[in-house]
Amino acid sequence: MTRTYLAKTLVTAASLVLFTGCGKQNQQTDNPDEYDGYTDETPGGEGDDTAAGGDGGSDSAAKAPGGGGIAKSSSTRGSTVKKVGKHRSLVASKPAVQGGEKPDKPAPNKIKKGDPPVISGVAPSIIVEGGVFNVYGDGFDENAAGNKILIGNKGMKVLEHRGDHLVVEASSASSGKVKAAKGKRGGFGRRGSGGALTQNTVQIVPAGDGFAVPATVAGHGLLATLYDVGAESTELPDFNSIGDPVGYMMFDNLNMESSNFGGVGPIKDNFGIHFQGSLNVVEGGEYELCLEAGDGALLFVSETPLLDVSGAGEAREVCDTLEIEPGEYDLQLLYFQNSADLALKLTWAKDGGAKEPIPATAFFPPANLDGLAAALNQ
Hints:
This protein is mainly beta and 378 residues long. Helix content is 2%, strand content 40%.
């Protein structure tokens, strides 16, 4: 029996729908070395019907990973470090992003000058105190300081205005709907001034250990979709059978030291995370990629299952050496944690150099976070 992850598809049209899970089960897989298909749940990605001219109203079928003759990753059960042989070059989905930044989407400009702003959504839904998040919408003041954002009646610091969204710092722990206004006389309770209010709530949690790390590099990092697995697992659970996501977070990179995790937001023990985004490689060369995880994790690069920390237990590491040409590569990582200590690290070493965590500047989140924000705000 092979294990197939049919990930939930997020579509960024007006008819955007979130895939509904099949009820909470801890359905485990049989063979950690045979993981032969998944659908990209990135908004606007391979599984997005609208990207291919579809109607956006249904989920796409599973897509088998490509990569030609790239070998399956090897199990690490009973070992500390496992290396597998050099593979052929990976295939980039896009040219490398030079200069380190992607252009911002333009502002919608549907709001008349002087009218209060409109919020289309906020992403992510769970933010660690001190981290940044995006407030999407229209009618914002182009001067960042001219905008006001509240969460649960606590003021947040607006850092930048970037076309269709504001970059906001989560200044203090809070929870509630997001309110927006602009101008000195805008206010939030002033009659006639209007202002925007989300339908959904956003949670700002205190910083701490494990995954309670603030994401601080705007425009970079990986989107994390959080799931409640419900019970301990001995292998990577079937993410298609563990119910709907319980929240979304952003992470600059994957560099979580082994620690006794105290929890963050709705996740404490027995949870799973689907990380997604892209890896931007500006300089080609021979790279050693290493994945350390406790309990277990599986890394896809360019739709290829590359590194597999199978089973459950204390932190173990798997490494693989391959040639990587300049380009932007789709990256998906599935992770699960039972209880006790956790760890999750993704590192690289170029051309025999020192191993280091892959920096936030090398990661880009999914292109259509605005679509996710709008879906959460329905």
